[in-house]
Design brief:
Elements (H helix, E strand, L loop, with lengths): L8 H20 L9 E2 L2 E2 H21 L4 H24 L7 H21 L18
Antiparallel strand pairs: 1-2
Length: 138
């Protein structure tokens, strides 16, 4: 498998920070009427949450340039706690609402993002570490 070129650590970290800032700004801005409310029968915000928090968790894994279990759990936990914090902030803003279902969706998306990072990490020359569901050969 061909390896992708290395990116400096500060730039990898900047990607994760930019994801977090974009999520924060998108979550606290007043929603306009330009976005359709439903797509394929699903509320559009579900798609936004899924892409945003999967991307954030994957970006955190990429910033660490690691795909072992601890890093993946930490990336998912950081993205989940960040999403819960934003939900709390939305509860303090008059034109937004805080929703536990959104926080749950953020957690599920963050877990999905770490799985995606685990799958593509070898393309970046990252060792996946011990596999969580298999025993190492004796």
């Amino acid at each position: 498998m061909q390896r992708l070129p290395d990116v400096p650590t500060p730039l990898r970290r900047a990607v994760a920070v930019c994801c977090a800032v974009a999520i924060l700004s998108g979550s606290l801005l007043e929603p306009g009427d330009g976005v359709p409310r439903r797509l394929l029968g699903i509320d559009v915000s579900v798609y936004f949450h899924a892409v945003a928090y999967a991307g954030l968790a994957g970006a955190i894994g990429y910033a660490a340039l690691s795909a072992d279990r601890r890093t993946l759990l930490a990336a998912a936990a950081i993205a989940t706690v960040y999403g819960a914090g934003i939900e709390v902030l939305q509860g303090l803003v008059s034109y937004r609402t805080m929703a536990a279902t959104d926080a749950l969706l953020n957690a599920i998306a963050a877990a999905g993002g770490t799985v995606c990072w685990w799958l593509i990490a070898p393309r970046f020359g990252v060792d996946r570490g011990p596999r969580p569901f298999f025993r190492p050969p004796e």
